[in-house]
Amino acid sequence: MTTVNDYIQDLLTETHDLESFLNALTHITAESMSVEGGEVLCGITLRRHKRAGTVASNNALAQRLDEVQYDFGDGPCLSACTDQRIFNIPDIEQEPRWPEYFREIMSSGVRSMLAVPLRLDTGDTAAINLYSMRVRGFNEEAVQRVQRYADEASTLLNLAVRMAQHRDNEENLRLALASRTTIDLAVGIIMGQNKCSQERAMEILKSASSTRNIKLRTVAATVIASTTNQPVETHFEP
């Protein structure tokens, strides 16, 4: 079985793009499993900040099948994320768990499912979701293969998620610094205009924010705009 590393490690390194990495993974997984006979659909569920979503899929139907599950708030892929164990559903018509979800997707043609967790060390959870149009679409050998695939993918997914978290943290810091800079400049302008202390200038700014029910940074930006048409620049080196 061709490894995840063979196909997408270079992509991840070059793009630092979590979405591209995961989309490549779904296509490779679906193609690999489809050779067993019949089309296989694949999606990847990622839970970050306690919210689940399909971050990649090999086609629109896989995406929709995942999203229906989120609407119900329960199902094989969500359970795989939560319990960190494999759920193999040989025949969704005979499966007693998640009856509402399976009734909802029956018209799609799906007859069996396989949900395999991805191991993350970031506090997030994830799972690969496979859908087959055949009953018993995933035998024991197929389950073991996907498990090995997931184990291998987990290493790269951990790296990708950490990259995404790093970018999130960096962007949050940039926004915080930009907000702080804007407020500090506005306070300076108010001090100059009113011949008052820094503390008093901040009180004036906060009062305007509260009275108008507008964010403090927005009020500060308005104060700055009244004195210059030049944009505020924040210098930040990560």
UniProtKB/TrEMBL annotation:
The keyword Transcription regulation applies. It comes from the Bacteria. InterPro entries: ANTAR, CheY-like_superfamily, GAF, GAF-like_dom_sf, GAF_ANTAR, WH-like_DNA-bd_sf. Residues 163-224 form the ANTAR domain. Pfam families: ANTAR (PF03861), GAF_2 (PF13185). One of its GO terms (molecular function) is RNA binding. Keywords: Kinase, Transcription, Transcription regulation, Transferase. This is GAF and ANTAR domain-containing protein. It comes from Paeniglutamicibacter gangotriensis.
